Amino acid sequence: MMGAAGLGLAARTAGAATSAELPAFDAAKPHVYWEAVRALYPLAPDLKYFNTGGLGPAAAPVLARTEEITRRLQANVEHGHDQMGGARTTLARFLGADPAEISFVRNATEGNSIVATGLKLGAGDEVIFESHAHPGGWYPWAQQQRLRGVVVKTFEPDSKDPAGNITRIRALCTARTRVVQVSHVTAPTGIVMPVDEIARFCRERGIWCHLDGAQSAGMIPFSLRTIGCDSFATSGHKWMGGPLETGVLYVRKDRQHEVAPVHVGSYSGELDEATGELAIANDALRYEYGTRTPAAPLGLAAAAELQERIGRDRVFAHGRALVKHFVARLAPIPGVEVLSPLDGPLAGSMVTFRTSIMPHDVLFKRLFYSHGFRCRPVSEQKLNAVRVSMHVFNTPAECDALAETAADILRRA
User: Fold this and answer.
1) Closest Cα to residue 375, out of 413, 328, 409?
2) What is the DSSP secondary structure assignment for residue 195, as one 8-state letter?
3) 56 near 218, Cβ under 8 Å?
4) DSSP 307-364
5) Residue 60, H or E segment
6) pLDDT at residue 185 tops 50
7) pLDDT digit string (tens) for 80-139?
8) pLDDT tens across 36-53, in order?
9) DSSP labels for 263-323?
């Protein structure tokens, strides 16, 4: 694991900043601190990046750590699997779990698929999730519907009242309901779902609770122990700022026997050569198999450590402040409608808006290709909107420029 000195060396090696040492945070001059954070990200100078919800950039220390491990292992022709234990401990701490509950996967989609495929469900068993689920959360269950006859039910997420989501889930539950899955933060409009209450609802009824955390890890602070869900999957390449093809699957230790690993190989367990019987690993390693590079999970661990140094509450507060700043600049623009929650427990660091003046895909293309603002078009559920993600490297000045540019584009439409 990299401490402060290692982060500083990594940043110098990557050349994005002379040092990864961050100044003390001064509430009277927050811009000084956030400019130092921004300097760690080797973004193209002409790119104004607002799509962390799709793909988050990695900071220079993370890139340097990943490259250093890759080069060292290649030089010595080693796989380095023994180095992954420290990364597992770091990610367990970051997510509020035990290392034995953490397995490294390629992304949230793979984690969601392991749970959907591994649970013992049959024809007529019901799975409930919200209609705003990302394909990486929806398709694994659609596949189980196709192959095993699982019944899929969806509900429209309530963006106004946390309790409304419980009510909508309850209305769909029957004696055949086996799983409730929700996006911890919904991808289309950034609703922070009331996962603590949903997990409690599921526990009381013996229903498996799975969270698609692709949008939450790295955006909001939380502890999986506190939430009390049965499983959770996230991608490292979004809000955490980890390398591509990194992710984490969490399955509660006392329930891992209920999620059978479909793909197995070396590291998944031990084979008794005398009997030919395979004993699956008694921890989350059961979901890992075969040769892989430790550079990716160790790079993800470096990303988690950087966020911990900044402070996870501070990360979220910064994102929320930028959302409010941006929405205030959007407000005077005629014909603009904001679809995301802006205050209270449902509000996150993403804001989705649309306008009756121009199709969303046209506005997205003009913002990006003509002005360098990379947002994300939202066509899901026919929302026809544009999503803006706010993270540690974004600034109020960028938010002002984005709102002014959008206003100018719409004014000329």
Assistant:
1) 409
2) H
3) yes
4) HHHH-HHHHHHHHHHHHHHHHHHHTTSTTEEE-S--SSTT--SEEEEEESSS-HHHHH
5) helix 60-76
6) yes
7) 888 899 999 999 999 999 999 999 999 999 999 999 999 999 999 999 999 999 999 999
8) 999 999 999 999 999 999
9) S--TTSEEEETTTTEEEE-SSGGGG--S---THHHHHHHHHHHHHHHH-HHHHHHHHHHHH
